[in-house]
Design brief:
The protein contains 3 helices and 3 strands. With 85 residues, it is α+β, with helices and mostly antiparallel strands.
Length: 85
């Protein structure tokens, strides 16, 4: 898994989560999937560990193929926004 930039601020606001990038001065609103993926961007969490965590967060759990696609899409979004190391 990729590693998040340590200067990006991650906060929960009511029922959504936000990332604030102090370099670009942009705020990014995340859904539950995005928040879980961001929290796992520690450079150490395995894809299997993340899949287990995601399964536990949703009822009913998503299909593994769809979940894997969502994870990859979310990480790519973080990467393209410059939020990862």
């Amino acid at each position: 898994m990729p590693a998040a930039r340590p200067d990006v601020v991650f906060r929960e606001l009511t029922e959504e989560w936000v990332l604030f990038d102090p370099v670009s001065q942009l705020m990014h609103v995340l859904n539950l999937t995005g928040a879980i993926v961001w929290a796992a961007c520690d450079g150490e969490t395995s894809l299997n560990d993340l899949m287990v965590e995601m399964d536990q967060a949703f009822a009913p759990p998503p299909e593994p193929e769809a979940l894997l696609g969502d994870i990859h899409e979310t990480v790519e979004r973080f990467r393209s926004e410059g939020l990862l190391l």
